[in-house]
Amino acid sequence: MLKSEEKKDIIQYVPFMSFVHPSFWHSLTEMKLNVDKLNESTKQVFGRYSYRDDTVSVFEVDGTSFNTNPEIELHYINVTGTLMNKNTIEDFKNIDKASLINSVGEIMRANIQTKSWIDNPNNLLNFFILSFADLKKFHYYYWFAFPAPSQPIVCLKEKCQNISTYFNEKQIKDISKSFQVLETTQKCFFAIIKNNDTAEVVKLSKILDKNSKELKINLTNTFFAFADHSNGPNPGWPLRIFLAALLDFCPNLSKTTIQIIGIRCSKNGSLTSSQIYNITVPEGVQTPENIGWVGWERNDRGNFGPKLANMSASMDPVKLADTSSDLNIKLMKWRLVPDLNVDVMKNTKCLLLGSGTLGCHVARDLLAWGFRHITFVDNGKVSYSNPTRQVLYTFQDCLNGGKRKAEAAADNIKLILPTVQSQGLNLHIPMPGHPIGESLKQETITNVKLLTEAIESHDVIFLLLDTREARWLPTLISAHYGKIVINAALGFDSYLVMRHGISSVPKETSMNSSYVSGDQLGCYFCNDVTAPGNSAKDRTLDQQCTVSRPGAAAVAAALAVELLVALLQHRLRVKAPALYNITDEDIDSELQGVLGPIPHSIRGFLHSYQTVLPTCTKFKQCIACSQVVINKYREEGIEFLMKVFNSGTYLEEITGLTELQLTAEMTEILTFSDEDQENTDDA
Amino acid sequence: MSSITPEEFVHTAKKFIELSDKFFDSWSFHQNDNDILKTYVKKEEFVNHRDEGEKVFLYRAEYIIFYNLSYGVPSFSFNIWNSSGTLLTLEEVRQMSLMKISKEDFYSVITQQEHPVMHRPYFIIHPCNTEKILLYFKHTTKNLIVTFLGLITPLIQLNLPLEYGL
Ligand SMILES: [Zn+2]
Known about the structure:
The complex is a heterodimer. Chain A is 34% helix and 19% strand.
């Protein structure tokens, strides 16, 4: 019974809770990368704690902890400590924590025995940080220790009492004043001597004589004082080491009651919330021959173990780039377009067929809109003429015969934003009317398979190729899989940007409807009545990009991406209707998306700075997206495709286009006559 | 003109620190002699948050007022972190109601970006409305930063001493 009561009185110190400022990890990282590198030697660091009565019991380190001299802050005590940063997680885990704290403790004990702390009481305070910095992930494992000897065990004679029970108002003011002018290195541990009506703060060296074991002071009016971080009834952790030092210096103190003042200060500097602890040293519980050191901090789960600071969100440059570019999209949502769906761009996978002028521009615009999955397809290499127009390539990519375009584009877009998921597929797209020799048959089959798999595994297919024939196979396969297709083609100073419908079953659209449902829209080939053959005839579109005005590709690519985003943001996505007359002032809100009405196609002319927005439905006999062609493809697969590649007329035969040739020629004549008119104007 | 010059900002900041010292509000003044635009005032404090399970979490909040060159007004920025130094996300800040802000206002007004002075990510209150409002006060207020903080307080709970006369 007696024993348990005694136990209850054993003093409980309020431990420190380590609190790390983000700048501490920034400084540590800089130091590790630029100064220490693989050097593992320990480093001096500063930490501090406050004895303010309105702050919690924390021990703080920050970016200035690594300075040569500590920053002085009002109502804070600076503590000199040691950082041991390990190079590997194994070293960090395997180091013997008990012997580590004991070895620090033995140095502290030696310090106590030299009595240097009487002149420099700051020397009694110490802390230790064991750490491991994973600088690839910006994860910091760390463990604080505040070493103190496990002995002597002391008791609180009675509950702590407010300073006013021993000192009157005037005396407390005296203490405040003389404490304020005390040197900062003396503020952690000192003494207070109470006279009749006054009280004064004195340095320890004034009352403790290093050369004598006896105290020459009257203990009844002498109080030992320490800067107390605690706000509760128990004293702060630094008292533990102070008492150990005092009792080591003067063992006779254990025979009396030691009066201690825990200095606690309010924000205006008043010390009225300071506490008095009366300490006694019980006999028989001390085991001086077996004194260990304690003080490892508990982690957030309450166990003795390390903590982890995951700083990647605020320190990893790759993450910062990613979140910052996301921010641009989010700002649009927060400030201008509240209904904008940010995630749809992130989750949509884009396949870019063609990695030339159009492909490069489209990729950059996709990136700007927050798309993060971009696959490039091309079979060319980067040549010296490319980088000025094809904005993903540099001079370096042209050297040594040139890098493969698709791969260079994928590599370079990751240089712009490392978190983008991108890869390049180097493959040639087979074309109708371009016969495949026996030698290339196997390769062609492989290419068709690769292209088919690529289309199947993406959500959006961009047709950015430089010939009309090359668009046929991806148009067909995309129609078969029902993918969103965005098509862009260039002339010298004109461009076409359009979306394809998905349904292969054309429905009759009422003549007086003001719009066409998105799935009923025509494809690139629906407007043409000639099949793509290997013709040398000049065309206004799909010439080599190098002979178009440079701005045409930039404008067309930008419109292609805007068209896609508008579509993705529309409730009906690929089925979003296209209006015949988009300039109408009162467009039914049902027909619009979050970003406005979405045209079927955009045809622009740089020469006259004009844009027109033609809308047309599917053509029943289309050589790329009609029922008959898709069915043939579904039934015969590669056999069908081979027939198409090898024959310039097969598609026209199966779609019945041959019979329409006459009409076709008529249309062509009409079309050309318009253009001839324009060309005359040019001259 | 509603905007203030960098010199006016520095002058106002110094006067504000005098007030803060007087009311023990622990704002501190940081001047860069080489670059007047890097002058700022800062306050750090501990904040508590009690979760549903009544567990109390301790965080440290830092508030920085700096000069925004584009708008010519003081700008308010802040960060909040836990004991390991990990910054809270904006959503965490909002959900904990450490700061009393409606969701719409919160996201439209506060964004995380690289701090023009501190060169690390901070939450910055967008200054687009500050300019208009400060116009009313520029010639009548005793201290523009005090007025500015008065504008911020509906968005962020700052526990300002009443003595400022907000
Ligand atoms: Zn078609």
